């Protein structure tokens, strides 16, 4: 079984110790993660700092061409990356799974290549000229999660490098292998040290976020970990982009035809088996169509094939890890004990691996953990309401504020209510449909800053005003 290595300054670096990476579908070891020490981290930051001296001076055109070349390389290795991803993450190759994720990584890389931040002329008259320049920050530290490890790595690396920064990335210890391979592929294009990858347990991530040589941290993951990263940034006043947890509300208005929205509702909630920050996690349905929506969702769920990700027939796979599996099970058990009506699923599947079925829980309300907490898995609470203004207020009571949606036959009416939701992104008659040209980020405890598009690229720059 392959022992992966770190990549520092363009060179592979072997480690003394490794940890097994397992397939959540069956528990089989699929590879070994290198366990970096703090000396490896220091070396990676130093390599990135050295590379920054020249990379930050490259032209806009050179960096755009490099991103295009990276996209071509990712395309050449797409199936290889998808196979690694499925084996360590569990998501199926097909459907909205690993091949879909690699396609997303390609799309974001290509779009980022074409972004530009030209000099802004703020004044040019007989009193003088004022120019606003955007300059790279320095060495960017990146910590990525286990749910979309390749695509989110591209979300972090590509705008950072496109803006002239260098990167030290640390993937989740649960899914490190696809990210390590991605960085190896990227490094076939970029100069040594522009992108470096270290790996290890969470302690090396904490050391990265506190490292004095890191000028900016970008992190996607839980709110609790985001708070720790924010605290560790204080000593050096690191810049931050934090995309944190969500508990997205979807609100179904009484004028909608349940059959016309059931597919959108289902995939809004269960894309990647619900293991997505901006998945639909609380569904509020008007009393007049509540039972009809419940029945339509249960019927649709029964048609989805769940199985080993390497089986081409599988549409959804396992929960990625034991901790998350146990959390989903506990939340569903708690909801059942508090009167929740199980429409589908409700108990682990009788097979090896972390398989939990699609679970729909009706007749729950605020005060039940499945509603109040982020489940991050294949379980959806369905909450009955009768007053629209009241349900908007209740949806906003949650401390998270990543995404939200409103479902209605009247799009303009839906927009009016959607604008009242306290979240960074809001969708009409769909949920979680992110795209590379639309800024994405949370409010409240769902994060700081935005990603994607020109606004996301700006997050990797500092402003310098030139007055003459």
Automatic annotation (TrEMBL):
Domain spans labelled Aldehyde dehydrogenase: 17-466
Domain of life where this protein originates: Bacteria
Name of the featured protein: Acyl-CoA reductase-like NAD-dependent aldehyde dehydrogenase
Active site location: 243
CDD domains assigned: ALDH_AldA-AAD23400
Keywords, sorted A to Z: Oxidoreductase
Region (Disordered): 1-22
PANTHER family the record matches: ALDEHYDE DEHYDROGENASE-RELATED
InterPro entries from the UniProt entry: Ald_DH/histidinol_DH (IPR016161), Ald_DH_C (IPR016163), Ald_DH_CS_CYS (IPR016160), Ald_DH_CS_GLU (IPR029510), Ald_DH_N (IPR016162), Aldehyde_DH_dom (IPR015590), LUC3-like (IPR044086)
Pfam families: Aldedh (PF00171)
Transmembrane feature ranges: none
Organism expressing this protein natively: Rhizobium binae
Family: Belongs to the aldehyde dehydrogenase family.
């Amino acid at each position: 079984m392959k022992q992966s290595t770190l990549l520092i300054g363009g060179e592979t670096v072997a480690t003394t110790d490794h940890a097994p990476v397992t397939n959540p579908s069956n528990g089989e070891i699929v590879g070994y993660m290198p366990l970096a020490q703090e000396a490896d981290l220091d070396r990676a930051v130093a390599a990135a700092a050295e590379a920054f001296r020249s990379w930050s001076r490259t032209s806009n055109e050179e960096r755009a061409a490099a991103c295009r070349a990276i996209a071509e390389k990712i395309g050449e290795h797409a199936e290889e990356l998808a196979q690694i991803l499925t084996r360590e993450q569990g998501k199926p190759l097909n459907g909205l799974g690993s091949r879909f994720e690699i396609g997303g990584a390609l799309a974001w890389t290509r779009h980022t290549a074409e972004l530009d931040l030209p000099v802004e002329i703020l004044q040019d008259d007989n009193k003088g000229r004022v120019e606003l320049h955007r300059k790279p920050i320095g060495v960017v530290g990146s910590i990525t999660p286990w749910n979309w490890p390749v695509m989110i790595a591209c979300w972090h690396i590509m705008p950072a490098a496109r803006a002239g920064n260098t990167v030290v990335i640390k993937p989740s210890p649960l899914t490190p292998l696809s990210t390590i391979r991605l960085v190896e592929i990227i490094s076939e294009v970029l100069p040594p040290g522009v992108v470096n990858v270290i790996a290890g347990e969470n302690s090396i991530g904490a050391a990265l976020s506190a490292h004095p040589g890191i000028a900016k941290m970008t992190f996607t993951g839980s709110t609790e970990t985001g708070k720790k990263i924010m605290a560790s940034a204080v000593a050096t006043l690191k810049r931050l982009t934090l995309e944190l947890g969500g508990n997205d509300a979807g609100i179904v208005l009484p004028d909608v035809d349940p059959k016309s929205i059931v597919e959108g509702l289902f995939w809004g909630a269960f894309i990647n088996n619900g293991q997505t920050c901006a998945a639909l996690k609380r569904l509020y349905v008007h009393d007049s169509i509540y039972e009809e929506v419940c029945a339509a969702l249960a019927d649709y769920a029964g048609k989805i094939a769940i199985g080993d990700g390497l089986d081409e027939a599988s549409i959804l796979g396992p929960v990625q890890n034991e901790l998350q599996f146990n959390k989903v099970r506990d939340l569903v058990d708690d909801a059942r004990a508090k009167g929740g009506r199980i429409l589908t699923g409700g108990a682990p599947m009788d097979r090896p691996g972390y398989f939990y079925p699609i679970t729909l829980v009706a007749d729950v309300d605020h005060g039940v953990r499945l509603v109040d907490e982020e489940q991050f898995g294949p379980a959806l609470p369905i909450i009955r309401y009768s007053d629209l203004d009241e349900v908007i207020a209740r949806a906003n009571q949650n401390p998270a504020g990543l995404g939200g949606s409103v479902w209605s036959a009247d799009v303009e009416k839906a927009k009016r209510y959607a604008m009242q939701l306290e979240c960074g992104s809001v969708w009409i008659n769909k949920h979680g449909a992110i795209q590379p040209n639309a800024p994405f980020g949370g409010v409240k405890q769902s994060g700081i800053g935005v990603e994607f598009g020109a606004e996301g690229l700006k997050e990797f720059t500092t402003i310098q005003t030139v007055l003459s």
